[in-house]
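Hey, can you fold this one?
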Amino acid sequence: MNTSRWIVGFGSMIGLAGLLVACGSEGVPSVSVSGSGSGAGSGSASASGTITGFGSVIVNGKRFDTSSSSFTVDGQSGSQNDLKVGMTVTVNGSFNGTQRSASAVFQKDAVEGLVQSVATDALSLIVMGQTVLVDNTTVIDDNIPGRNVLNLVAGTDHVEVNGHIRPNGVIQATFIERKLLNVTPEVRGFVTNHNDGAKTFQIGTLTVNYATALITDMPAPSGSNWNGLLVETKGTTFNAVTTTLAASKVEPEHHGIGNQVDEFEVEGYVTQVRGAGDFFINGTRVQTTGNTAFRGGTIDEITVGTKLSAEGRWENGVLLAKHVKFHESVKLEGDIATIGVNSFTLTGLSGLTITVNGQTEFKDTSLGGLSSGDHVRVRGRLVGANSVIATRVELRSTDNDVDLQGPVQSTAGNIIVILGVSVDTSTVSQFESVGGSSMSRAGFMAEVKLNSLVKVKGNLNGSTVRWDEAELED
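Sure. Predicted structure:
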């Protein structure tokens, strides 16, 4: 259905936005305006995000024909055969109607280096001082035994991680593979603790020494003036004892697109909110208008740490959004039934466990401030059949409303199972399509497939829920 905390320093990000306009990425040519498009007519097109499929290259669900494209993979000339689902890329090219063609595809990883530790629950690992989060959407390459990060050997194995940088510098992995040859220590992330006197800064817990590095397109170092910038650093040697990288090159992270692009889409995490409808996704500034369409959420839900994609026209360092889509597929609302040290459950959603961690954002509360009976809204991501990691928890006023949104796990008759919760649609009186139009129960159930994203709404009656609305989501 369509519906209408580390903060990066504003000054630093504006400086980076200027650099975005002034310089292109190595190996990726700029594109010029050739139309007035966003889906109609023809013009220039770019996208930055995750590869979701091939047959050409599909990025963020959009297919780009690559028959005439060049490929740059980890800084080297390559081919489409070097790319894999889950890798993060920037695609530059053009569109004509609904057809898109790529002139250049540029892949870049988030960190490449030594595995220092792997969490026993397999949901995170430390790579060269960077915390890497793993969930059910992370593609584990088959060169890792069993496609399980628990089979990586800390202190020995090297990996390449593709993913999105979260606002606190943590990497949400979209793809992980083991590197057997030609390991080049490198990392992308936000600068902290810059000390030009010592020629050092930090990315995560990694100390970067840039005394002998090539500095490209960066502000002249002075004091701590690099703090908050999103940069890419390559090195020669990594000292695991001191978690220090001897840098060979430091440059700002940017998409490598032109001053103006008719159709541009970026995917990632919100790293700064300047005001309503004015925010950054990584280093990309996004502004919404009264005509912006919001999918899967509303403008007031755009907070630091929210995963979004935004699509629109790129003009002089700003993406003017036509569409904004929320990517955390799990949305919940209800009363807390039980609460533990780092998890809680909701009344009426039996069997579903919600876990919080250091990345969870709390609004108007904290985990310690919550009690049984409190009414909350939750956004999160699925990590098991009936287990969710909360990315945002908001305390709400007392209410009987219960919401459940997630991928469908099975259907049988009028019963659909979402996140382990059986929903009886025989009581539902209102069904809606993805576009928001009314549907019959039979039509709705015919559309619902395995992994369809569905939202159901109901009211709590004691400890059970009577469901009265069901919506297909995009």
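The helical segments are 10-22, 441-447. Let me know if you want another pass with a different chain boundary.
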